[in-house]
Amino acid sequence: MLILTTVLTTGALTLTACGSRDDNKKSSDSGGTQTVVIGVDAPITGDLSALGLGIKNSADLAAQTANKDKTVPGIKFEVKPLDDQAQPSVGQQNAQKFIDDDTVLGVVGPLNSGVSQSMQKPLNDAGLTQVSPANTGTELTQGEKWKTGDKKRPFKTYFRTATTDQIQGAFAAKYLFNNAKIKQVYLIDDQKPYGAGLAASFKNTFTTLGGKIVGSDHVNPDDRDFNAVVTQVKKSGAKAVYYGGEYPAGAPLSQQLKDSVQIPLMGGDGMYSADFIKLNKKAQGDIATSVGKPVEELDSAKKFIADYKTAGYKDAYEAYGGGTYDATWSIIEAVKIAVADNGGKLPSGDDARAKVLAAMAKVKFDGVTGPVSFDEYGDTTNTMMTAYQVDGGKWTSKLSEAYKP
Questions:
Q1: Distance between CA 40 and CA 327 in Å, rounded?
Q2: Per-residue pLDDT of the chain (405 residues; tens, 9 = 90+)
Q3: Alpha-carbon span 71 to 124, nearest angstrom
């Protein structure tokens, strides 16, 4: 089985192919060091690769830092990045690849909630810990009936450092209604789990506040011609569009909207990317929310930002860099606990995954994005949200707050 490992060459991340490990047994070097692999699943190619590459690089940086600082004595961490192409079927295949490699004791990712839905069960069945830095679909941790108050955790192996769409959609609605003073909104979503869930949460809070949804529609996320829906938006008298979706479709939607009517488009963290602005010549004034506070404004993130620059990654850490580092570090901390509880050695066989999973409940540390820990559902206890607006060709933060709907 071909194993991918990461090395730093003149500071840049490169991938090297290594021979198969003997029946996937945990390797040891001559000094007795054992290797622990952390799988990373993200869209490394395709439309969402800007976000995926930031995830891959930030996970790698965490592993490299742990090795340099000898965070877990006797353990060397490697990352194994696999490209899910933002496709659930590919994510499911990647999950099986991680499961089949028994050196993998945790998985970071994916980016997309829809991809995660295809990965959760196989990883759970294998007892393999998963921590996503980006998934916001509320049902992933609280079950399909969470809206009725019947919250049940579907998979014990799933955790995340990103907060939920329940919180993000409500925060966005409150910001648009109270801060932007916009009361009439046209609602559009891309019919994917992330986009539809985010739009539903936004609608619920916006109408509760007294706002009016003057029209709604669905679009195909693969389309790039949105003139038909733009015509409907113009007729509706909307003062803004809220789009539940991601930037590859959101950017042309915004640009075509501005060609017809001068109103802002607002979206969630799937819009908060530098590529949204690169793909949209008329992004000025558009709004997005994202999980956490901007890492550039956090004292806790200064070392991460400096180390990322020093490492020489050619791709930006993007929206999920800090959260990815923390997600990866949570697995490293769980390994540290498991090793300490086993007399300073890595548990053997299937016991290693079980002990790492059990240790996740004890994980608590000060991370890049702030304090990191998980509640009884596997959700992050950090509910900080930020609203951004495009101004002068870049995203600028407008409001950050810990939010509970």
A1: 11
A2: 333 333 333 333 333 333 333 333 454 544 579 999 999 999 999 999 999 999 999 999 999 999 999 999 999 999 999 999 999 999 999 999 999 999 999 999 999 999 999 999 999 999 999 999 999 999 999 999 998 889 999 999 999 999 999 999 999 999 999 999 999 999 999 999 899 999 999 999 999 999 999 999 999 999 999 999 999 999 999 999 999 999 999 999 999 999 999 999 999 999 999 999 999 999 999 999 998 999 999 999 999 999 999 999 999 999 999 999 999 999 999 999 999 999 999 999 889 999 999 999 999 999 999 999 999 999 999 999 999 999 999 999 999 998 776
A3: 27
Q: Shortest CA distance to 285 belongs to which of 255, 260, 249, 247? A: 255
- State how far the Cα of 167 lies from the Cα of 404, in Å rounded to an integer: 6
Q: What is the pTM of this model?
A: 0.86
β-bridge partners, 365: 372
Q: What's the token pair of residue 201?
A: 């949460």
Backbone angles phi, psi at 270, to 5 degrees: -70, -10
Q: DSSP letters along 283-319, please?
A: -TT-EEEEES--GGG-GGGHHHHHHHHHHT-SS--TT
CB burial of 1-27 (b: ≥16 within 10 Å; e: otherwise) equals: eebeebeeeeeebeeeeeeebeeeebb
Beta-strand ranges (E) seen in 117-275 are 129-132, 158-160, 184-189, 212-218, 240-244, 265-267
CA geometry: angle 310, 311, 317, nearest 5 deg: 100
Q: Quote the crossing angle between the two packed helices 49-69 and 321-340, to the nearest 10°.
A: 40
Cα(125)–Cα(122) distance, rounded to whole angstroms? 5
Of 234, 135, 246, the residue nearest 189 (C-alpha): 246
Closest C-alpha among 251, 281, 294 to residue 395: 294
Contacts of 2 (CB under 8 A, 6+ apart): 17, 18, 20
Q: Which residue has the tokens 């099986």?
A: 96
d(CA 239, CA 338): 54
